[in-house]
Specification:
Elements: H1 2-19, H2 24-32, E1 42-50, E2 53-60, E3 68-73, E4 78-84, H3 98-111, E5 117-120, E6 126-129, E7 139-141, E8 154-158, E9 161-164
Antiparallel strand pairs: 1-2, 1-5, 2-3, 3-4, 5-6, 6-7, 7-9, 8-9
């Protein structure tokens, strides 16, 4: 009976946690105050998540190559496996080292936000999809000095943050 009650309590807690919504302002504030240097030029995609484990893809904006497949232990907050599948001749060699991958994943995980995708291109533009890995970014932060040109898809939300327009 105690085991049943413990399991029921855990499931109730997990349900309550998953029902809490993170607002756009909370996401923007957290990203604004994070050190994003390890993610510069890198995109992280959450492909699957289960209790204690996440399957992530990580790639570089500098190379048009297959992503690395990364498994991350959320309880221990550490990368447990990194695999690179290669691809074309120009992508046969690994293009990111383990330290770069682990640093980017650590930065992404430290924010603890519900991102399906987060990437920072070589110009420093931040792209975030809160809906899922297969959805286009719904948030974008433009660094000062970079002109905003994507007026068809995004509109100003606050400061240098833009949100995707509804269709």
């Amino acid at each position: 009976m105690k085991e049943y009650l413990s399991i029921l309590t855990l499931l109730t807690f997990l349900c309550m946690q998953s029902c809490q919504r993170t607002t756009l302002d909370e996401i923007m504030d957290k990203v604004d105050h994070a050190n994003l240097t390890p993610m510069h030029g890198i995109g992280v995609t959450l492909r699957r998540s289960s209790l204690g484990s996440q399957h992530l893809n990580i790639n570089s904006y500098e190379y048009n190559c297959a992503p690395y497949i990364v498994f991350f232990d959320t309880w221990k907050s550490r990368v447990t496996s990194i695999r690179y599948m290669g691809g074309s001749e120009e992508c046969a060699k690994e293009y990111l080292d383990d330290f770069t991958i682990e640093s980017a994943i650590g930065c992404w995980a430290d924010m603890g936000l519900p991102f399906g995708f987060m990437g920072i291109n070589l110009e420093g533009v931040v792209y975030i999809s809160t809906r899922g890995w297969d959805e286009p970014p719904d948030l974008m932060r433009i660094p000062e000095g970079i002109p905003f040109t994507d007026t068809l898809r995004f509109k100003l939300y606050r400061d240098n943050w833009y949100v995707r327009k509804l269709r």
